[in-house]
Amino acid sequence: MEHSGSFKKYGDAPVFGDIGTGTMFDAYVWKQNGRFRMDVSWRPKTALAVTFSDDGIHWEDPVITLECDPSAGENNLNRNCVIPDPHGNGYLMWYTGQYWEGSHGKSWIGIARSDDGIRFERHYKAPVLVPEMDFEKESVMNPFVMYENGKFRMWYAAGETYEPNVICYAESDDGILWEKYAQNPMFRCAPENEYEQNRIGAVQLLKENDGYLMFYIGYRDINTACICAARSKDGITGWQRVPENPLVMPTPGGWDEDSCYKPTVIRDEDGTCHLWYNGRRESFEYIGYATGRIAD
Fold first, then answer.
1. 102 pLDDT exceeds 90?
2. Which of 224, 242, 250, 262 would give a disulfide with 202, using CB separation of 3.0 to 4.6 Å?
3. How far is the C-alpha of 242 from the C-alpha of 296, rounded, in Å?
4. The sheet that has 284-293: what strands, in order across it?
């Protein structure tokens, strides 16, 4: 990929994760009580964790929030989303549960709840979303959930387990029983764009005055990825890719030279986007940070 990406990376090293922690990936960053909160996947622990920061760059030591439940057939947890419970004082988490045997895997989405936002317990024993359609193949994963107008709205990736293929959508009254959008998949790759000709995955949305801005992964091939964005009036149909694409791309010779994955974004009132992402070089994968703007 020759394009350098329209966003500016912070420094030449990750902002979270190192040899000591091992792989930290698939973060979701949001503001909690005035601080940056990062819910993150911790691969060596096969668990989910949380860390906090005052500036989005310097992060505290991670604390595990949810561990695998072997009795539920899980041997890995990752790719979660946490929001304040709109019906109470606690927090809700949707997460990806996985089972791997050799090179074959499968994924589903579960739900957990916490009173303090740190110690989570499964809110419902069974998965709340499983692959059912042909295009979902063996996996649904990477839920992003937003609560609007009395409904939970979920955007999720589906397809192959190693890396998904398409983006889908579902709605729920209680966060447990979900109705999938009848016209799924909601969003597919655009093969005419070299940087997303193979597949797409891993979304986060921001609400705008006249619609939604979606950040996603574009894959040139299964091992090479970058960060992109698109807009829609209703968050489901009529998606238009932004002209600033691709936003973040691998830096040759850098710590993220192989792939830039899984965007998570906070946008300031002046329009500046603060974007955290997975960067990978060979088997080493940590969290990087970049900033930029996307025109209205």
1. no
2. 262
3. 9
4. 8-9, 284-293, 272-281, 259-267
